[in-house]
Amino acid sequence: HRRMATIQAAPLVESRKAPDATAAAPKRYLALDAYRGFIMFILVSGGFGLRALARNRPAYSWIAGQFDHKPWEWIAFWDLIQPAFMFMVGVAMPFALLIRKQQGTTDRQLTWHVGVRAFRLILWSQVLMSISSGRLHFQLINVLAQIGLTYLLCYFIMQLEFRWQAVIAAALLIGHWALFVAFPGTEGPFLSKTTNIGAVIDKAVFGRMNPDFWTNINFVTSTVTTLFGVWTGQLLMSPRSNAQKMKALGGWALVCLVVGFAIHPWNPIIKRICTTSFTIYSTGWVLLMLLAFFWVVEVKGYTRWTFPLIVIGANSIFIYSIEEVLRSWLNRAVGVFTFRFTLLGDFAPVAQACAVLLVMWYMCYWLYRRKIFFKL
User: Fold this and answer.
1) Is 214 helix (H, G, I), strand (E, B) or coil?
2) How far apart are CA 96 and CA 33, in angstroms?
3) Residues 232, 31: Cα–Cα separation, whole Å
4) CA triplet 268, 270, 273: central angle to 5 degrees?
5) pLDDT above 70 as % of the chain
6) Is the pLDDT of residue 231 over 60?
7) Which of 127, 190, 274, 347 is most buried (CB neighbours < 10 A)?
8) Helix locations, 134-275, DSSP H
9) How far, CA to CA in Å, does 13 sit from each of 9, 24, 42, 161, 165?
10) Mean pLDDT along residues 270-297
């Protein structure tokens, strides 16, 4: 669980160089735990079986499409899950680093801790992807590998004054855009799926392209997503009132949505290569989702409904790993006892996906009751 402190900081507007070790004891935000759990709940849901339903019931095509990645240009709800995951890693960083500072951790020890954790995330991503592939499979496109890279970069960036953090964020976004324009491929910078600069780098470094045109250099712009999370975390740790924090979150969400959409004609919103417009536009939606959780949980005080999400969020690495390597087995195992809900006809895949999700949730609940939490 993440806790929170009352210290001077005001991102999404300005920032300090590092957490203050003399700050008050951190206080926990339940909204952050619930939001993290919500992200993981959607991520491991298998799309709730809606894609299979839509094949037989075209009337459900639109909602099913929201639980699948866009083939190339534009955005669906499913495309927001990874940015939200990476954003929440950034939100947690100021809280976690402050706690370690208060426990007496030196700057050198903190840097070592961050470096080791980044390495573990990248290494574990290789293990999961290799198991899933049935062979050794080195890549950097898996979400844990991307988080490991952005987590490390953001740690060093957040040591700087806010103006330099903003300059670096702008440079990453503009530089990524410029790189694709400078090496446009055979069909243009944002139309070439197999010859864009990201694909060229993947073939040169890894000897192959990733399936479905994902590129390993997505971490460049995703670093900005995580950095927005850092700034948001520092905003929430500030002594501002809830109303002021909500105003800042809403204001910056609107700015991101407008800017991302405005540059879309020249820099299309494409998740698979994590374009600049996608990074900015998706951050706007991620901020709006966090704003909704903050308003419901922290301002209105509606908390009881969050417990199922908190159970998942408390063991996010565990449930993500289970989903990556055991979902097919769990689907078969659960299907033995549910008869795959064949009596429900076209809706059987939805019921089956929900049953598998319930089993995974109970595994997290079993660990939660025993205070067992897997961390890297």
Assistant:
1) coil
2) 14
3) 13
4) 120
5) 93
6) yes
7) 274
8) 143-157, 162-182, 197-206, 219-236, 242-262
9) 9, 22, 31, 12, 11
10) 97
Residue 2 structure tokens: 């993440």
Q: How remote is the C-alpha of 348 from its chain's centroid?
A: 30
State the Cα–Cα distance between residues 202 and 216, nearest whole angstrom: 7
| Range of lowest pLDDT (3-12, 178-187, 264-273, 310-319) | 3-12
CA distance 146 to 89: 11
Q: 71: closest CA among 272, 209, 280, 276?
A: 272
d(CA 278, CA 284): 10
Q: Could you give the C-alpha distances from 144 to 22, 312, 355, in angstroms and in order?
A: 32, 17, 26
- What is the crossing angle of helices 316-338 and 348-369, to 10°? 130
Calculate the CA dihedral of residues 32, 35, 36, 40 and round it to 10 degrees. 170
Note the pTM of the prediction, 2 decimals. Answer: 0.90
Provide CB contacts within 8 A for 175, sequence distance 6+.
220
CA angle at 72 for the pair 71 and 74, rounded to the nearest 5°? 105
